[in-house]
Specification:
150 residues, 12 strands, mainly beta, 1 helix, disordered C terminus, Immunoglobulin-like, 43% strand, four-stranded antiparallel beta sheet
């Protein structure tokens, strides 16, 4: 209720370059690509592969396209080889969508891989089909310890 009241008084449209929006700030590495302020973070891996969390905000007043299916993602396996990774999308639900001006969104995607992925890199520019590559790289995430201490 307080957030709604504050939004009514001051407006809740995304403020360009702030990487923040009620009720929380964006976590991860930050980059601006075209109209998008974008953060990407590596989350704890699932059994089928690494997970990347994307948060994005449209810094422009007009709609802009976001294409999570076409993001270039490369993983480096334990043997030191680079492998192209595709998001897990068994029902072909990922497709380009328009994000209205000054709005925000987010998604987490798993990237199936055989074996352990030690490092994963994302070309953030491909998310918006925008010009020069903007690579963000992440090492292995900290894994939570489950169980009792000895």
């Amino acid at each position: 209720m307080r957030i709604a009241l504050a939004c009514a008084l001051v407006g809740c449209a995304y403020q360009p370059g702030s990487f923040a929006h009620a009720p929380k700030d964006f976590a991860g590495q930050q980059v601006t690509v075209g109209c998008l302020d974008l953060t990407v973070e590596r989350r704890a891996d699932l059994s089928i592969g690494p997970v990347l969390g994307y948060q994005f905000a449209n810094r422009c007043d007009h709609a802009t396209m976001i294409d999570l299916a076409s993001v270039a993602v490369v993983g480096r396996n334990a043997e030191g080889r680079d492998v192209a990774l595709q998001p897990y999308d068994p029902q072909a639900e990922l497709h380009p969508v328009a994000l209205d001006g000054r709005n925000v969104g987010g998604e987490a995607l798993v990237y199936p891989a055989s074996g352990t992925i030690l490092e994963i890199c994302v070309d953030a520019a491909t998310l918006a089909h925008a010009g020069s590559p903007r690579w963000l790289c992440f090492g292995s995430p900290l894994r939570p310890i489950v169980g009792r201490a000895p």
